[in-house]
Amino acid sequence: MRGLIGDVLAEGGVEVVGEAADGSDAVRVVAEHRPDVVTMDLEMPEMNGIDAVEAVMAEVPTPILMLSAHTEDGAEVTFEALDRGAVDFFTKPGGEISTGVSRRKAQLVEKVREVATADVSTPLARSSAGVDGPSGSRAGPGGRRTPAVGSSSPAGPTDGGGTDTRQAGSASVSNSTAGPTTDAYVANPTLVVGASTGGPNAVERVLSELPRAADFRVLVVQHMPAAFTRRFAERLDAKSDYDVYEATDGARIGGGEALVAEGDTNTLVSGYANGRLRVRLTDEDYDKGVQPSVDVTMESAAEAVTGPLVGAVLTGMGADGAAGIRAMSRAGGHTLAESEESATIYGMPKRAIATGAVDDVRPIDAVASGICDAVRDGTR
């Protein structure tokens, strides 16, 4: 398997500078060669991939791509590796030992090159520590969408409370992690969060800090294969105050509930009534190049949702989410993007910001507070 992967990468123009037969050897080889990126198996003798990831990140932080079995068991250990610091994963068709990798040469080479650009030096990108979010009861007008409170404002000096706001294109950049100023929220808000490479931990951070009192209907679109999205939903459910499920065709959610888009399909908002969302799953790819697509879900939400709407684009490679953010902004929603300082890969947030439709740019530890700011009830 190691020889096959090395051949595939070399044929794709990637220079392979070293190999390791087990986890402990991997730590030594990485420290010796200082590569741009590491591919790491999960099942290895002596030291497994999870422990090797932790050791590498402690000794010589390096972008790591996990090689995972395309199974739910594989999903469980892969998420643990991501928790320890791995950037992303590549599923091996056929299990642990599989020549099926050779059929996905282009995808593997592309993924390795993508992960090599990840910034693993920022503690914000790797932090999973929770910050207490705002709390209180939901309040405010229902029905039609209301303008967001606390949207983009002109640049100003640092205020004595630790907020540093400056202009970045059309979006304000805030580094504030200050506590809430009010505990009242507008009624029936909807949040759509999109992410790709580096996204699982970033999404988990945001949802874990999202107060149940804000009563969001949440849609999460994370680029991830089908065998992994159910387990991802379970992890988010365990680590947030929201009830989180993998999306199914025809599913409905109300306040305090969230859906994770199923892998290898697109999730559309097909209906909205009385504060409840209904979704439809489709195999149509809409020429987006990825499934699930952030753009597809955001654009459908912008068209269907008539209540308060918030969209956030987090870390990831590519442009998915840019068109969706534009659609949500045009529909009157409040839009956010993760800042470069915390994003593992700044591609998706950068492309979203470039549209001029992003209202607020924040590091990952301030995204949840920005989302809440957008739906605070200014009349209270």
TrEMBL record:
It catalyses: L-glutaminyl-[protein] + H2O = L-glutamyl-[protein] + NH4(+); [protein]-L-glutamate 5-O-methyl ester + H2O = L-glutamyl-[protein] + methanol + H(+). Residues 120-184 are annotated as: Disordered. HAMAP family: CheB_chemtxs. Pfam families: CheB_methylest (PF01339), Response_reg (PF00072). Its EC number is 3.1.1.61, 3.5.1.44. This is Protein-glutamate methylesterase/protein-glutamine glutaminase. Residues 184-378 form the CheB-type methylesterase domain. GO terms for cellular component: cytoplasm. One of its GO terms (molecular function) is methyltransferase activity. Contains a C-terminal catalytic domain, and an N-terminal region which modulates catalytic activity. The modification 4-aspartylphosphate is found at residue 41. It comes from the Archaea. Phosphorylated by CheA. Phosphorylation of the N-terminal regulatory domain activates the methylesterase activity. Residues 1-107 form the Response regulatory domain. The keyword Hydrolase applies. It is an enzyme of class 3 (hydrolase). GO terms for biological process: chemotaxis; methylation; phosphorelay signal transduction system. Belongs to the CheB family. Residues 134-157 have a biased composition (Low complexity). Residues 166-180 have a biased composition (Polar residues).
